From TrEMBL:
Transmembrane segments: none annotated. Pfam families: Amino_oxidase. One of its GO terms (molecular function) is oxidoreductase activity. GO terms for biological process: carotenoid biosynthetic process. This is Phytoene desaturase family protein. Keywords: Carotenoid biosynthesis, Oxidoreductase. Pathway: Carotenoid biosynthesis. InterPro entries: Amino_oxidase, Carotenoid/retinoid_OxRdtase, FAD/NAD-bd_sf. Signal peptide: none annotated. Residues 23-495 form the Amine oxidase domain.
Length: 500
């Protein structure tokens, strides 16, 4: 288990955490456990950040993250407080983990049984089963070493990498090159390459711009498994809020922050309704660029507007939340629909921003596992199409894309939803920007590109404002719910180090 550095130096400090996403909730719990007086200010009407829920006519939708991966991270988080996930929610391992419909008519399931997955790989390419074993061995090693020595340890400066331990543990890791290069070393068949790379969507990258180190996600996928927590990801949010309350954290929703004034020992955090929260230190789990550009005066910003304009952002998303009559037997809880060539889709996200004509997309049907999320005789599902951050998002464009996507689902999965929809809501670029103050409407944050990983991401501590810190998906270790949990630990450790 990765130990947490001593946080005792934070005892008695008063801290305001801006934003109640996973990074903010995690940081708040660590600080409160250390004896700090913690207040969380959340802009929206519910806690959870992008892990919001939408309730309509008996349907309950997870609006954001829906995959429960890396269960060890959740276990370690709760264990620090003398708890376990099972104290708050149950877990169901999904079978299949997910289903893939390729648009040439092919369909495969990835399942908990590794031998069956080996057979799938061998059916596409002679010798691929053995290469699958080799790939997972490498992935497992990368995961174990990467998590312990690079993910749970913040190394914000170049000098942090020039020591014997780093050199010893990084020997043989896939630190150089892209995921595309790495996967091509193992598999020739494009469908096998896609299976090994689909998780890049969750990291906000593409095969040619994501570091090869992230092959560790295949260990997460195949060896550790895919789970569904009771109540969806909202159930995990509720667990963290309950833990925070048990530790003494004070939560305020409907509290948009408009200004951060002062410095260590004398901060004033002001909200839209005129309230002022005085504290010793501040942590922002809000969008990093929004915090600097909108909540601080120019002289207190670490980065210019040009810096933020030059970053590569993880995709935004076109989302449809659908309540439909009847079952959707052909779909699994997690279903991916992939063109046999997906390069064009990634180009439309990162190189030539446009709404993709032949999209790769994801369907989530939690009612396959949880009968509380839809009325009897109905199915709950959402459609997620990754699209470029910053795309023009008009009602006319959404309507046209809705028709394209629903027709594509009918054609390639055999499930025609169009005459069965009883509840429908969409969410897209403009909504990410307005609801979450998300730069360019990104759904995730900064992409994990070769030039935006590890020490090349913005830091946890402001270089301009003493006592101001950051947590969440713009910082290390990066994007995704487990990473944001760990980000909370790293932020708390940095605060304790500075306090000492």
């Amino acid at each position: 288990m990765n130990s947490v550095s001593d946080l005792d130096s934070l005892s008695g400090e008063s801290v305001v955490v801006i934003g109640g996403g996973f990074g903010g909730l995690s940081t708040a719990c660590y600080l409160a456990h250390a004896g700090a007086d913690v207040t969380v200010l959340e802009k929206n009407e519910q806690l959870g950040g992008r892990a919001s829920t939408l309730e309509r006519d008996g349907f309950t939708f997870d609006m954001g993250p829906s995959w429960y991966l890396m269960p060890d991270v959740f276990e370690q988080f709760f264990a620090y407080f003398g708890k376990s996930p099972e104290d708050y929610y149950g877990l169901t391992r999904l079978d299949p983990h997910y289903r893939i419909f390729f648009k040439d008519g092919d369909r495969v399931d990835m399942v908990p049984d590794l031998e069956k997955n080996r057979e799938v790989f061998e059916s596409y390419e002679p010798g691929a089963a053995d290469k699958f074993d080799d790939y997972l061995r490498k992935s497992k090693r990368n995961y174990e070493i990467g998590m312990e020595h690079f993910v749970y340890k913040d190394r914000p400066n170049l000098r942090d990498y020039v020591d014997f331990d780093v050199l010893r543990y990084s020997w043989g890791l896939s630190l150089i090159g892209s995921m595309q290069d790495h996967v091509e070393n193992y598999f020739d068949h494009p469908k096998l390459q896609q299976i090994m790379q689909y998780t890049l969507v969750f990291l906000g990258g593409a095969p040619n711009n994501t570091p090869a180190l992230y092959n560790l996600m295949s260990h997460v996928d195949f060896n550790m498994g895919v789970y569904y927590p009771d109540g969806g990801l909202a159930g995990v949010v509720s667990a963290m809020v309950q833990l925070g309350e048990e530790l003494g954290v004070e939560f305020h929703t409907d509290s948009p922050v408009t200004e951060i004034a002062g410095r260590r020992g004398g901060f004033a955090v002001r909200t839209e309704d005129g309230r002022e929260f005085l504290c010793d230190q501040v942590v922002s789990d809000a969008d990093y660029a929004h915090t600097e550009q909108e909540l601080l005066p120019e002289r207190k910003r670490q980065y210019s507007a040009d810096y933020w304009e030059s970053r590569t952002y993880a995709p935004s998303a076109y989302l449809l939340y659908l309540g439909v009559e009847g079952d959707v037997d052909e779909l699994a809880h997690h279903t991916l629909v992939l063109p046999t060539q997906w390069d064009d889709h990634f180009e439309h996200i990162f190189d030539d921003p446009a709404w993709p004509d032949d999209p790769a997309y994801y369907l989530c049907v939690p009612s396959k596992t949880d009968d509380t999320v839809a009325p009897e005789g109905h199915s709950n599902l959402f459609v997620l199409v990754p699209i470029a951050a910053g795309l023009e998002d008009t009602p006319e464009q959404r309507e046209a894309y809705r028709d394209l996507v629903l027709a594509d689902i009918a054609e390639h999965t055999g499930v025609d939803l169009r005459d069965r929809i009883v509840v429908e809501e969409s969410f897209c670029v403009n909504d990410f920007a307005s609801r979450y103050n998300s730069t360019q409407g990104t759904a995730l944050g900064l992409a994990h590109t070769l030039t935006q990983t590890a020490l090349l991401r913005p830091g946890h501590a402001s270089k301009k404002v003493d006592g101001l810190y950051f947590t969440g998906s713009f910082t290390t270790p990066g994007i995704g719910v487990p990473m944001c949990l760990i980000s909370g630990q790293l932020t708390a450790e940095k605060m304790a180090e500075d306090a000492r």
